[in-house]
Amino acid sequence: MKIVVTGGKGMLGRTLQKELAGHEIVVADLPEWDITDDAGFMERLTAESPDVVIHCAAMTNVDDCETKRDLAFRLNEEGTRNVAMASKIAGARLIAISTDYVFSGDPPKEPWAWSETDIPRPRTVYGASKFAGEQMVQMIHPDKSVILRIAWLYGAGGPSFVHTMAKLGADGAAAPLKVVDDQRGNPTSTAAVAGAIRFLLGRPDVSGIVHGTCEGQTTWYGLACELKRLLGDRFPRGIVPCTTEEFPRPAPRPRNSALKKSVLNVLGYRTPTWQSALADFVAGAW
Description:
This protein is of the alpha/beta class. Helix content is 39%, strand content 16%.
């Protein structure tokens, strides 16, 4: 297949270029491709005439979105609208990447995982702008699109929480790292997401919302501890748990944004556990 990847120079886009190498990949990124330029993007995409568009381009810095609301909605809502419209006109299937932040993150019980049918109630500008983008996809191109929600992403080249922890953890002489232990989610590698996308490419009958994170859930502290265990002598620094309140940020963080993979499981596909995905990542190229 011929596949256009918006935001193809980003962390997920780079992994997709590698993992989907059997297909013809067109990297659609700035400065040549601008998703906020509706006419320009339409012209470029229709000229390529792809079979599939994987839409990764987005404003993803959660705190920046809080202070740059207009830009966040321009990129995540209007940009996604332009990608959806262009994909429809080109006759291409669309796989649009979204996020756990569309949910409130305040679970009614523990442990909890949000399903594809739960109602989004975003608490941040980032989450609201991404949910608005989801709605654009569903309005414009519903029959040939998948909204793939992912979370806690890390991959080759970074940047990510995993890369930051590995760098900070290498200093054994420094005071123990404080890591938040009251936020839960699904740590997910870009390789695991690429695997889910590869599966969905083989299922053109699937449309709608799909959750594509790794199986299992933990806290940021739990993720850091597992990374320390895997790195061994390369992570000599100590780690101690702390609360969200000890690290105030402009955008509120969800207490639990773990995602349930109901659709993929029904289709017979299971993502790797977060522990096995992390182990594969540590053993491979960073």
